[in-house]
## 1
Amino acid sequence: MELIAKVEAEALAAIESATTTAELREHELAFLGKNGSISGLMREIGKLPNEEKPKFGAAVNEAKAKVQAAWDAKSASLKNAERAVQFEQERIDVTMPARHRSGGRKHIMQITMDRIKDVFTSMGFVYEESPEVDLFSYNFGALNYPDDHPAMDEQDTYYITDDLLLRTQGTTLQGHVFETVKPPLRRFTIARTFRNEAVDRTHSHTFHQVDVFMIDKNVTMAHLKGTLRTFARAMFGDEVEVRFRPDFFPFVEPGVDYAISSPKLFDGKWVELGGAGLIHPNILENYGIDPDEYSGFAFGLGVERIPMMAYGVDDLRLFTENDFRFLEMFS
Ligand code: FA5
């Protein structure tokens, strides 16, 4: 009986002092397991006289039950404690603000250019590009500028050599196309263009132009106006009207500037957009196109103008400053 009390006390003390479930598991094997010391007590029974056997057996069972109960209780409390630690380590603070992920987006100029491309492509115009650094002859001569014509002064630019310059206008595409393509043809480009210009809110040394032209039989100012109106409506809304006024460009005859007006823009005031006209017969002849058989129209305008008007941007330098507060306003 003393032995039982000793083993029981040992077991209870060991269980009580356990600090981890792993340690407790070892005590389970040592005391309660098949080869544990409490099971060992049962084997002692054989050495006892018969009359003492039942009492001893009952006492061992009682001790075993006590130790088991102590073990169960300790196991439960250690498990709880360990889980609490684990929860604390794996805790997720659902109230923490999410990390800001800034996605890229298209620049407002890119959005504008993509829309321009959609509009003219849908009208059967083919997009084409020509060099930013081009020959003087494509920029001026091919476009019917007589030598030393004062119109060239309005488009002073940066010269690489006497013959090579940074193009001043998207219209430079014309000569490149007329050399290789026979009419009927419809072409357009979006060109980065350069001029020796004092920079202010509406002028830059580097800007962009859309330039559009077509040649076919019986092309008239009516086709020009209809194309411009379709384009302007796609950019600025369905109520836009287009107006022509006489203007001079060496490569068109007649030449006009065109303005648009809409009740939704600038209180319906006319706002000038760019230049246009019918392609000069001299140019057609220079490229072997018979002006009695074919005629064509051409127009050009500054791309920066479009978002400036559509969104009321009052300084074109904002397009290249890359101030996120500005860029994030457009998507
Ligand atoms: C031309 O450049 C002609 N090539 C347009 C043309 C094409 C006429 C076909 C007839 C037939 P202009 O120099 O006016 O025209 O320029 C056209 C547009 O480019 C202007 O209305 C303006 O919106 C834009 N632009 C001109 N210079 C600058 C500049 N320094 N900064 C920003 N935009 C400019």
## 2
Amino acid sequence: MKVWLDGQLLPVDQAGVSPLAHGLHYGTGVFEGIRAYATPEGPAIFRLRDHLDRMARGCSIIALPFDPAVAERACLEVLEANGLEDAYLRPLAFFETGGLGLDVHNLKPRLLVAALPWKSHLGEAGAKGVALLSSAWRRNSRHALPPLKLCGGYVNSILAKREATGLGYDEALFLDRQGRVVEATGENLFIVKGGKVTANEHPDALPGITRDSVIALTGAVRKGLTRKEVLDADEVFLTGTSAEVAAVARLDQHPFGANPITRALQARYAAAVRGGDPTREGWLTRLRPALAR
Ligand code: PMP
């Protein structure tokens, strides 16, 4: 496997990073999770610029230098270099050497992009329906850590994920102190009730790009949901780059039934990401023409 590191494509075991990297010690980095899909016209990256714009917002909040145009080129080159079609792209910008103080001025910024063969982080559960646990952990408050893909912030997701998997669930759902739904550890939440699709809205949740795509595909309304409204729903599903559109089979002890609307949406989403929906061509960055530019 080759990775792209600051302008060079290197075998992963030759891509060296200092053990004193600031990002390793304090989580001072920003990452993205992006998918590339095989299409009949070759690989295409889904909503590449939207992911890199979100990454730029995360970098700016910790004063980490980041150029989305450079990262875009890196994503294309590393996908090509690894000969992958269905892939997960992982750009990571982080502070490396220059000191271990908490003032980030004068630290060396680094940019890594890896391309991994595709594997869903919800695994089998993504296909058979997710067992979702209402977590006892609270989501990072936006007043403490903004909902962007800041590396250190993900320890919060890992705590909730560990709790859920330890109890035999697949995924955890964060609720706030008022019982309102925030998001899952790596996905946003939707419900379907009486045929109407609603996208949960919460200011502590990451503004998901899959969520935005699903709102565009379904005309879903955005609304803050309570746990009770989720339990009363006909169907519940999670959205994320990795999970795509994943049906929830149960929330805590409460099972949900068949998921006809979720299933139809999964097919529409799959068509959009794989170049089968001409009205969504604008969401795709096709590898070969983009590399030739
Ligand atoms: N919430 C969190 C906490 C996430 O990590 C992710 C994955 N990036 C999402 C939601 C879904 O976002 P997206 O659809 O942009 O992948």
